[in-house]
């Protein structure tokens, strides 16, 4: 997809979601809720998001080590924080993933395909954990909340994940992909896509590591759902943790949409759409979504500080990764 088309889609999606949000809310009352935010809950949410970055870097370290690429946990955590900074200006988490691949490949020349595969696979296993939590949340919500449309989203995501898993790890499917080589070579995509595919496919012999990464992802996602609940409490949303086990995983999936800048407006529209089904007014829902956006901005601050310090120590111009 060309950069121009991606930019146009980003603007269209953002504009539609922003129009929906403004149509639903009273801007003045939403601002009042944000001014009166409970700082204790907000600080706790930020702390949870920052602290859980270390285990996220740890699961990435496990995947790299399984393929013989060894790096320090401190540096991988640093790369994660920097990726959060890039995610504020590049399309959602995909831009941050690109920065991790770019910087790690420079530290380990000749391993770009394996490094890219580890990042993609880490993202996929995190998505699988998200779907498991979403399924659990939907079971809790049956008979309690109106979740019909979200059930279909969950089913579609599960089907997509299963298809992706078969495509990535099946040796039979691998042979089927051979016919794609010549047409991809004509548009100069065959080599990078082959390297990425082989980087992911190579993990099929490391089932134990994949399961460990999945289990750790599950624990991280549960903890971060608590952070979303805290942002709701900070603006006075009176809900138990139960509905957040539906909202949180689906939010994580929505935020992967590649046609937004850090989920701008899409996140708030999703909060309004979901929470209105729980008898929460649109202003409180929008305030929760915006506050969670503030939490993600705070999560990027360590990365910004790291880049600033590195620029001072090494004033040579840094090259930015392509999303």
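^ Assign residues to that structure.
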């Amino acid at each position: 997809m060309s950069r121009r088309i991606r930019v146009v889609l980003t603007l269209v999606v953002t504009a539609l979601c922003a129009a929906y949000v403004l149509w639903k809310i009273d801007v003045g009352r939403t601002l009042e809720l944000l001014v009166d935010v409970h700082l204790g809950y907000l600080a706790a949410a930020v702390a949870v998001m920052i602290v859980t970055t270390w285990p996220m870097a740890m699961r990435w370290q496990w995947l790299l080590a399984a393929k013989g690429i060894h790096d320090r946990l401190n540096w991988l955590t640093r790369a994660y924080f920097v990726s959060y900074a890039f995610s504020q200006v590049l399309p959602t988490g995909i831009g941050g993933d690109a920065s991790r691949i770019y910087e790690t490949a420079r530290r380990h020349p000749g391993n770009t395909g394996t490094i890219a595969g580890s990042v993609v696979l880490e993202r996929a296993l995190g998505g699988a954990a998200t779907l498991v939590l979403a399924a659990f949340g939907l079971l809790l919500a049956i008979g309690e909340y109106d979740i019909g449309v979200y059930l279909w989203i969950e089913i579609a995501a599960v089907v997509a994940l299963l298809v992706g898993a078969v495509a990535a790890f099946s040796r039979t499917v691998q042979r089927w992909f051979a016919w794609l080589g010549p047409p991809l070579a004509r548009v100069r995509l065959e080599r990078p896509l082959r390297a990425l595919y082989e980087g992911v496919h190579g993990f099929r012999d490391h089932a134990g590591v994949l399961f460990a990464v999945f289990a750790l992802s599950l624990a991280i996602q549960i903890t971060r759902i608590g952070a979303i609940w805290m942002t709701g409490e900070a603006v006075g949303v009176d809900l138990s943790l139960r509905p957040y086990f539906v909202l949180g995983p689906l939010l994580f999936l929505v935020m992967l949409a590649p046609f937004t800048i850090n989920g701008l407006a899409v996140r708030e529209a999703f909060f309004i759409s979901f929470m209105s089904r729980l008898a929460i007014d649109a202003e409180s829902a929008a305030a929760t979504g915006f506050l969670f956006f503030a939490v993600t901005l705070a999560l990027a601050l360590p990365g910004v500080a790291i880049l600033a310090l590195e620029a001072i120590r090494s004033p040579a111009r840094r090259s930015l990764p392509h999303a």
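The two ends are 12 Å apart (CA to CA).
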